[in-house]
Amino acid sequence: MVALAVDLAEELRELKRERNAVILAHNYQRPELQDVADFVGDSLGLSYAAQKTDADVILFCGVHFMAETAKIINPAKRVILPDLEAGCSLSESCPPARLKAFLEKNAAKNYYVIAYINCSAGVKALSDVICTSGNAEKVVRAAPQDRQLLFVPDQNLGAWVMERTGRKMDLWQGNCYVHVEFTARSISKIREEYPDAVVVAHPECTYAVRMLADEVCSTEKMVSYCKNSPAHEFIIVTEAGMLHRLKKEIPDKIFIAGPTDNCFCGECRYMKMNTLEKAHRALLNMEPEITLPEEIRRRAERPILRMLELSA
Ligand code: SF4
Fold it and tell me: In terms of pTM, does the model score above 0.85?
């Protein structure tokens, strides 16, 4: 079984060379996909990697909105997603039609819309600027002072950025079904078990969990934070795939997955839809391919480029 996986990984690498492709993988992907990728990172890092690549094809091991983002900033490249069903509960909580209707109804507020990157191309096209959890604070601080801000779609990340910047924003009531499973009770309990461990949580977690954390940061920052911290043990409160990267890059420290109150293991079912087999098949057949109407793509590109300029 292990040998088969190794062979398939090798075949995928060979195919990648033939197709002049680059493989990008999100931190929450299965370990075998992270291991075969050219670049593993968070949404911001992946956006940069997608922007910089000179490959003809991007095999995007992540969820749909991420592959869409890669396509938006690389219209001439072919972007392939191993499983087209790999969606996102957070993105789905903000359908473009609902946001459009909300903005029309509240036209008098003349909202400046800041969209977390975890949203569809249709929502990006309605936004003024995009942010990731890694640069949200910077993006919000740079927002025009004379405009009322609307933050979509993640209410927890939005609330966290408000706390950090002191800037008031109206928040869309969306959330990530994985991160809201962590509770103050489940985190307090594991803390008692590992009293010396440092708790590191993602800002998509609820306020009650963020309050218990020693550090709240993006998945990318988690890597540098844990590397540089004098602590030896860490409780990681985010999607469980993150532990693979942390253990690989910081082998001398101990990482414990933040638990939930039930048997839910902290794995995102959408992220885990991609497999090595599907990735190989997708690159072989050059499908499923991400395509977008040019008008939407063009409108969605502007706020992404604004973000990339701001966080450069
Ligand atoms: S972990 Fe949450 S935000 Fe990320 S893809 Fe899964 S559902 Fe969406």
Answer: yes
